[in-house]
Structure formats: C-alpha cells, structure tokens
Amino acid sequence: MTDVLISGAGVAGTALAWWLRHHGFRPTVVERAPALRDGGYKVDVRGAALTVLDRMGLREQVSRRDTGMRLARFVAADGRQLATMDAALFGGREGDDVEIMRGDLVRILMAATGDVDHRFADSITALRPAADGVEVDFASGTSRRFDLVIGADGLHSTVRRLAFGPASAYLRPLGHHIAICTVPAGLGEERVELMHPAPGRTVGVYRTAGAPDARALFLFPSPADAPDHRDVAGQRAALARAFAGAGWRVPELLAALPDAPDLYLDAMSQVRMDRWSTGRIALVGDAGYAASPASGQGTSLGLVGAYVLAAALAEAAGDPVAGFAAYERRMRPFVAANQQLAERNLKGMVLGSAAQIRFQTLMLRLMPRLPGRERMIRRVTEPIRTAAAAITLPDVPARAA
C-alpha cells in the first residue's frame, strides 16, 4: 500500500486524504496547528467543486450548513444606507452554489476521512529523496519515510519552500492586504453583509444565522512596511494605521482586535509556478496555485485539485511521476481560468475614489428598476460561472494503490 504524507489539514489537504483513501492509498496528514482551525471567513463552493462533493456523498451535509445570508447592505461613514442587494448576487452565487463557513466545511471533510492518521501540533522540517520515496524529518524530532509527499499547506507552504525554493520566486502580490477576524456579535447584523466602502479601503462585517459572534473583513493597499504573516502585534498595528480616521463602525471593530482569537492578515497574492511536482513531491491547492481571496474560487480549486490529483495517481498505478504530470495537464487550464478572476474582482472590492463609490452605489440602487436587469446580472456573473466549470472531471473507480 502506498504511504502518502499530506502537509496541511485545510480544505485541500483533508479532501485529498479522503480521495487517496478512497483509491486505496494510505494517507497521513500532518498539521502545524494543535487542532482543526475553526477561524476563517465564509467560502463559496460552485461548479466542478459541487460535483466533487457529490461524488464524496457530502453535498447534502455541506448544503445544510449554508450561511443563509440574505442581503448585502452598503453603508456610508455616518451609517446611512447607500444601497442593498441580494447576498447571493453580491457573492456571485446562483442555482445550487453553496456558501459555508470555512471551519464548517473542514469539519465535515475531517469527519468523513474516517481512520486517516492525523498528526496535529507537528510540521515538516526537512525532505530528503530516498529509494522510491522521501525521508521526512518532523519538528517533533521524529523521522519517517513516505512513498509520496504532498504539500497542501497554503500560501506560505513549507513543502514548497523545502522542495522548490523561497516563496519570493512564486508569490505574485496583487497590491492589497486582507484581514479577517472574529468580533462581537453586536457589531454585525444577522444574515446581512454590511459593507463600508471608502476610497482605497473597504470594511465589512456580517453574522450568520444564530452565530454567537460576527466576522469582520478589512481590505486595504499593501503597506511598504507590511508585517510578517505570523506577527500578530504588528498586524494589529498595521490595521490601526491603515484605517485611522475611518468612520462607521471601524473604530469599534479595531477596538475588538486585541480580543480576536483568530486574526488573519496577509497580502492578497497568487502562487504562479511552472511545475507543481518534483520527484515524489507535489503541491495541491493554495500551496501550488493560490488564486487569492479576490477570486472567490480558492476553496473550489482546493476541492477540485484534491480530486484530480488523487484520480491521476490512481490511474498511474504506481508511477507517481506520470500521475503528477497527468494532474498538471488536467488542472492547469482550470487554475488559469480561476486565477484570472482575481484582478477583475479586486477592482470592484476596493474602489479608488469617492466618485467611483458614488457611481457603484447609484448603479446598485437603480439595478432593480433597469430594463434587462436579468441579462445584466447574467453578464456580471458569467465570468465566475465559466471559470468554475472550466474542467472535465475524470471518473476513476476506486482501486487498490
């Protein structure tokens, strides 16, 4: 039986563990965090990724955990309502698309993996080629040989750094930073996405139905002195500088930062690589082809990538190099289509001037009364619909590895 080490217990890593087990491999998942990460924002699952959930038998479970958001409400610095729109349209969702909290999705995937071995509070420190495998050193002081190693460890992937070189060679910043954290429930409005656009920066906060807390979102131009993604104190200071003098509820949201248990702040970046594998090591999800939060497709890329990688390895029947090559051939057009969404979407997420904000909110107010409204909406949502379905998934039966 083929032993596969997966670094990262997020969406891509946990889904990959499920599919590898389904195909007869023996996956082990190593995760730096002491337990599953509950933080994070709401994420969208659409297109080919929904088919992946169908084939896992998890579609109904995931749909039951839909956030149930109703409205997006745009507000001025003084709290005045500028415009409202349907939450699904705001998120580019239609039909069977699902919006779910990232933590809920990972818990569903984790529960489905059954007896897969998970090593929490540990991480990879070294990778060395071995006879028909990879020798792996762990931060816990142990070492073990695996037949294959897969990096599913996100934008700042350790596996990518050890196997392919420094992040600077592959990260493509999009010029903005994003921050996400949990804030008191009273700062949000149940099932409503409150958005405060200001020139060059955007703040949002929402609370899903029955949630005990709310989630806040900050978007702003990347500072020249951006803190490291692990420097929490520096991140709080950077947010305070970026949003100094902002109106609406921003002072209250900033005041809640010291108590936030899950502050995430990082540059919005994409990962662009000429290859996602070397020898018996490969990458999946954000580690190999992050599209950035601006794409709205990171979760779907992780789910689809996990499915395609596991299927390719199963079809290769003991030839991982051929399997990795097949995985890349099938995934690259899909990745390219979804990465292209990011810059286009970002232009609408952070507006550069007060005039642009006035025009955007005017159009949102007028849209319900405009002739041809449905046609206009279809034109707006078409790029993400097309990208989400830009792959034909292989249908590979379960087999012994």
UniProtKB/TrEMBL annotation:
It comes from the Bacteria. It holds the Pfam family FAD_binding_3. Residues 2-161, 268-338 form the FAD-binding domain. InterPro entries: FAD-bd, FAD/NAD-bd_sf, FAD_aromatic-hydroxylase. This is FAD-dependent oxidoreductase. It comes from Micromonospora solifontis.
